[in-house]
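Form 12-C: Joint structure prediction
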Amino acid sequence: MTTETGTAPETAGTMTRFQATQALVALLDKEPVISSLGRSTFDLHGARDRPENFYLWGAMGMASSVGLGLARSMPHTKVIVLDGDGALLMNLGSLTTIGVLRPANLVVIVWDNEEYESTGGQKTHTARGTDLERLARAAGIDQAATVRDLAAFQEAVRRALAEPGPWLVVAKVKGDGVKRRVPRKPVYFKERFQAAMAELRAGAGEG
Amino acid sequence: MSWYEAMAEALLANGIRAMAYVPDEMTGELLERMENAPDVDVYSVTREEEGVGVLSGAYLGGRRGALIIQASGVGNSLNALASLNVACKVPLLLVVGERGGLKEFNPCQVPLGRAVPGLLEAIGVQTFRVDNEADIPELTQGAATLAFSTQLPVALLLTTRLTGGKPV
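Section 2 - Result
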């Protein structure tokens, strides 16, 4: 898939993360979604809270790794990760492990707003030239794309859900400044998620 | 039977079906046994913390996991262990090769290696020392029961008395 390049300035995109999250969940059935801590989690919960969502509240950087382990353990379903650019930068080794193991069912979406939004909006390296799509390709993830508007995002997600991966979709987004409250009940969400995954496996005959 | 054969057998008998590692000479033979075991999903990871993440995902997907690492790797895993496994009650077994204790020869391995039980205790992870091969089945079963029944990470520390330590 070709990236959107050209002469436009390399800035965070015109779509908001919340809009893109809403567009994503509209395309899902019961696929598990792992969201990184902070705004990725708040926007996912706000767009649609569902038992198949696993919200991270700490362990920054771990979203793609959790997604990898889940994807390998549940090969019959697509597994979606909603990562932050700052969080992914903390665990770049994960891209290489994904590139080596090549789980066909893993879709990593990076909400690249080029800043640490939850701590006051300080810039990340993606605002300074770091290109996550190129890093992913160099790590062996061939299905990688950067999208900057909602239509392109929706098309990328449709392809990622339909075609074998692993996929990395870098979505250039911005926050919308809306404070979304999520009940701080990590153990409840974990238990609910675990039960939902067991049900998915039973349905697929995986046991 | 060697200690690593006993350890591999005990891990498998207690339902371990996912394993992540950063290699260590002391546990090399154990890694090999686990890699050759049928239906164990093995992850070579770039950093021990990454192993915590993949095994957490594996557990949520239905596979019990063991992270087989050297003591230094515990230091690389603390935030993920505390804020994901302990706080959210996602269990896993840590199988840790001891450094910084008896027979240690590298001064730089001492400060963290000797602190591992204390560091894990500080974040709510219990550590059980494995000194003798004869104790392996009992300790592994006890650790696995504790981990997966109470939904917490638990560590087994493979001491140099068990493994012989790292060759100088």
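Section 3 - Comments
Residues 186-204 of chain A form the longest helix (19 residues). The interface with chain B takes residues 34, 54, 56-74, 91, 93-94, 96-97, 100-101, 186-187, 189-190, 193-194, 197-198, 201, 206-207 of chain A (CB under 8 Å).
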